[in-house]
Structure formats: structure tokens, C-alpha cells
Amino acid sequence: MGAFVISKRFDDHYKFVFTSRKGKTIFTSTSFELKMDCETVIENIKATIDNYTYVKSRAANGKYFFKMMFEDTVIATSRKYTTPLLLQKGIDEIILAASKSDILDFSMDEFVFPD
């Protein structure tokens, strides 16, 4: 089972990544100004994963990636894959695991180990 991981970008906007059960990033979302918007999109993905489309593309370096879209809006962009088969496995993992994945919030500026 994968996980949605919320974090903060350097420009104080929020993003989330979807990671596989092995901890590898499958896709990264677009930026969100509010954390609440980020959480709402994650909940929508979990509830309606079948309504999303995946547009497959090839980068200039020859690697493969996809854009996860809802209607005409890009929600997230995947990492780069070396083969079309690995690309499809990434998409399949999202479809199978997204609805039951956990949400982890690492957007706070608190350190686990204080000085």
C-alpha cells in the first residue's frame, strides 16, 4: 500500500507525492497555496480514482512519464521511467492502492530530534 505525503515547498506552497509501498515516489502534485486544498485533492483522488486519466509522454532524454489529469486539469506529474512497462506498473499501482493509502503530513517545520 502506498502513501500520500504532504510537504511544504521552499516558496511556502504545499505539494504532495504518492509513494509506492517500497517508498519510491510515483508522482508529485502541482503546488497549492493552502494546505486545505492539498488535502481536498488527496481525498478526491482517494474517493474517485477511476475518474482520472493518465497522459503518457516521453521526455527529451528518452525516458517515459505520465501526467495525472482530472478533466482538463493536470493534478500531478510522475517520475521518469526507463520503459513503457515500468510506466504502466506505476499507473497500475496508483489505481490499486490510492483509495486505501495513508496520508502523511510532513509540512510542519518541527524537527523530530530537537537540538
Automatic annotation (TrEMBL):
Stored InterPro entries: YegP-like_sf
Protein name, as recorded: DUF1508 domain-containing protein
Organism of provenance: Flavobacterium soyangense
